[in-house]
């Protein structure tokens, strides 16, 4: 992940807040830009997969470490 990619800390937030906050934050990112989201809601992976399908953004990566998901999204152009 590039150093200048914004990181959204959604740890402690439950569905639908991580996706809603990511949607708002993506408005400030240029098309093709990357964003990283950290969330611990077990529903987050599925929520972000659906969010990307519906919006045209690309799910670049999804990892889990000690119950915290790191989700990388590339904004649609």
Question: Could you describe the 3D structure shown?
Answer:
The protein is globular and about 30 Å long. The chain has 77 residues and is α+β, with helices and mostly antiparallel strands. Strands 1-2-4-3 form a four-stranded mixed beta sheet, covered by helices on one side. The chain is 29% helix and 31% strand. It has one domain (7-62): Translation Initiation Factor IF3 (2-Layer Sandwich), CATH 3.30.110.40.
Q: What would you say about this model in short?
A:
The protein has helices at 17-26, 44-55, and strands spanning 7-9, 34-39, 58-65, 68-74. With 77 residues, the chain is of the alpha+beta class.
Q: Write the element-wise H/E pattern from the N-terminal end onward.
A: EHEHEE
Count of DSSP-assigned helices? 2
| SSE-based structural type | alpha+beta
Number of strands: 4
CATH class: Alpha Beta
Radius of gyration: 11 Å
- Low-confidence spans: pLDDT under 50, at least 5 residues? none
The N- to C-terminal Cα distance equals 19 Å
Q: Numbering strands along the chain, what is their spatial order in the largest sheet?
A: 1-2-4-3
Features:
Translation Initiation Factor IF3; 77 residues; alpha+beta; 2 helices
List the helices and strands and how they pair.
Layout lengths: L6 E3 L7 H10 L7 E6 L4 H12 L2 E8 L2 E7 L3
């Amino acid at each position: 992940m590039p150093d200048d990619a914004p990181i959204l800390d959604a740890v402690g937030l439950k569905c639908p807040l991580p996706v809603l906050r990511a949607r708002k934050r993506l408005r400030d990112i240029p098309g093709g830009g990357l964003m990283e989201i950290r969330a611990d809601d077990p529903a987050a992976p599925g929520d972000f997969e659906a969010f990307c399908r519906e919006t045209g953004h690309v799910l670049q990566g999804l990892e889990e470490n000690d119950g915290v998901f790191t989700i990388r999204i590339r904004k649609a152009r």
